[in-house]
Amino acid sequence: MRISESVTIDESELEERFVRSSGPGGQNVNKVSTAVELRFNVAASSALPGEVRARLVRLAGRRLTDDGVLVIRAERFRTQERNREDAQERLFDMIREACIVPKRRIKTKPSRGEKERRREAKAKRSHVKRLRGSKPDFG
């Protein structure tokens, strides 16, 4: 499946397991395994370039196991098929996001006007706090 111009994932790399859902479905919930647990081995996947893999690991957070397997659980819908599509779409969105190279931050210095406004605000605040101090002795 083509995810972006640089990433294409083979369907054999995705492992799906159907489990009982806790979502909507009434009595059906107790009988049918509609929730999908989609597993994608990020560490062993040959489809991901190194920098995309590193960003995906960071994006995955706690959804990534110690073995480097990304686990996405989908139980939003009542049917297996819709949950399966939902899980795949969430995985693909996460990979697409990992494909985007973040822009490097350009360091800038505060302008002279910003520095002056900051100093004036500090002086004003200092003055307000000084007025809150002990009362002057008039005696």
TrEMBL record:
Gene3D superfamilies registered for this protein in UniProt: 3.30.160.20
Picking any one GO biological process from the record gives: rescue of stalled ribosome
> Which segments constitute the Prokaryotic-type class I peptide chain release factors domain?
20-36
Biased composition range(s): Basic residues: 120-133
Q: What NCBIfam families does the annotation carry? A: PRK09256.1
List the protein's name.
Aminoacyl-tRNA hydrolase
Keywords noted in UniProt: Hydrolase
